[in-house]
Amino acid sequence: MSTDDESPDNLRKLPLPVAQLRPKESALYSVTVQRDVEFCDHARATVDDVARTVRCAACKALLDPMDRLIRMAKDYDRRRRDYDNLVTEIKAQRERIAMLERMETNARARLRRLGVPRLEDWQLDQLIKREADGK
Ligand SMILES: [Zn+2]
């Protein structure tokens, strides 16, 4: 093997950069996005009640007050729906807990009628664990 560019660590430089050797793969990544200005979604706003203007708290851009009001109303509606859904979910889970407590009471009563001595909670937990483990 005769090369005119031998390096001390026994490596040879490729004649072309890797990207030029694989044009199809490099074409997949040929688009780069450049922004001159950082993107700002104007999430927080400040209201100037004297000048009657609304500005973005981050980028200080002047915002349309009506757009801001509509955005706040939509945000409030979304949060209100989320809250209502959570309240409904909490109510459903409380009903489920009450049903499970009734089932536990009934199961304890059945065990008592069958002559099984009253189990303490830790004993019941052990039984349940043993049942779950399949022992
Ligand atoms: Zn902004």
Describe the 3D structure.
This protein has 135 residues and is mainly alpha-helical. The protein is 53% helix and 7% strand. It is built from four helices and three strands. Strands 1-2-3 form a three-stranded antiparallel beta sheet. Strand 1 (45-48) and strand 2 form a beta hairpin. It is flat. It starts with 17 loop residues before the first helix and ends with a helix. Mean pLDDT is 83; it is low at 1-5. Residues 40, 42, 56, 58-59, 61 line the site of zinc ion. Zinc ion is lined by residues 40, 42, 56, 58-59, 61.
Summarize the structure.
By secondary structure, the protein is mainly α. The chain is built from 4 helices and 3 strands. A 3-stranded antiparallel beta sheet has the order 1-2-3.
Query: What can be said about the biggest beta sheet?
Result: 3 strands, antiparallel
Given helix and strand content, the structural type is mainly alpha
Broad shape = flat
Q: Using DSSP, what is the number of strands?
A: 3
List ligands, each type once.
Answer: zinc ion
Q: How much of the polypeptide forms β-strand, as a percent range?
A: 5-15%
As a percent range, the share of helical residues equals 40-55%
- Average pLDDT rating: 83
Q: Largest sheet, order of strands side by side?
A: 1-2-3
Unreliable sequence segments: 1-5
Series of H and E elements = HHEEEHH
Question: For the CA atoms, what is the radius of gyration?
Answer: 35 Å
Counting H and I runs of at least 4 residues, what is the number of helices? Answer: 4
N- to C-terminal separation? 70 Å
